[in-house]
Amino acid sequence: MITFHVQTHRREELVDITAHIRRLAGEQGWRHGALLVYCPHTTGAITVNEGADPDVARDITANMNKLVPRHGDYRHAEGNSDAHIKSGMFGCGQMLIVEDGDIMLGTWQKVYFCEFDGPRQRTVWVQFMAGS
């Protein structure tokens, strides 16, 4: 398993980690298999979505706030219940295909670390599983 850190700068943001993951795949010599990209935080997540237009990431965070507002009918005492709910909606990990030493993504896709309770320094775990 490989660990790397992501520094976030706002309470909620999507941070593009695609280039870092691609670099890891090349440096590690991973050729064919699957790559698990995992967030070990209960107020963060990993997602794959459009990366060509930065407004998509902005639209995601803005509209998640409408779906799950920061202040609501929450009992969790830390004041970040919305972040836990958003994290659960996105999920803690993504499985990516690795072929010929690169992660396989669609034309417009990027891999994002989703911050819902920042700014913070976050950790991402990456585990490669070799194919046959």
Describe, in plain words, how this protein is organized in 3D.
It is a single chain. A hairpin with a 2-residue loop joins strand 5 (93-99) and strand 6 (102-103). The chain has helices spanning 18-28, 54-67, 81-90; strands at residues 2-7, 13-16, 33-38, 44-50, 93-99, 102-103, 109-115, 121-130. It is built from three helices and eight strands; from the N terminus they run E-E-H-E-E-H-H-E-E-E-E. With 132 residues, it is of the alpha+beta class. The model has no long low-confidence stretch (mean pLDDT 95). It starts with a strand and ends with a strand. It has one domain (2-130): YjbQ-like (Jelly Rolls), CATH 2.60.120. The chain has a five-stranded antiparallel beta sheet with strand order 1-8-3-5-6, covered by helices on one side. A three-stranded antiparallel beta sheet has the order 2-7-4, sandwiched between helices.
Summarize the structure.
Belongs to the UPF0047 family. The chain is of the alpha+beta class.
Could you give the topology of this structure?
Elements: E1 2-7, E2 13-16, H1 18-28, E3 33-38, E4 44-50, H2 54-67, H3 81-90, E5 93-99, E6 102-103, E7 109-115, E8 121-130
Antiparallel strand pairs: 1-8, 2-7, 3-5, 3-8, 4-7, 5-6
Low-pLDDT parts are none
Distance between the termini: 19 Å
Order of helices and strands: EEHEEHHEEEE
Sheet bearing the most strands, described?
A: 5 strands, antiparallel
Q: Given the structure, what is the number of helices?
A: 3
CA-based gyration radius = 15 Å
In the sheet with the most strands, the strands line up as 1-8-3-5-6
Oligomer: single chain
Shape call: elongated
Beta strand count: 8
CATH homology superfamily name? YjbQ-like
CATH fold descriptor:
Jelly Rolls
The tally of domains stands at: 1
CATH architecture term = Sandwich
In round numbers, the mean pLDDT is: 95
What top-tier CATH class fits best? Answer: Mainly Beta
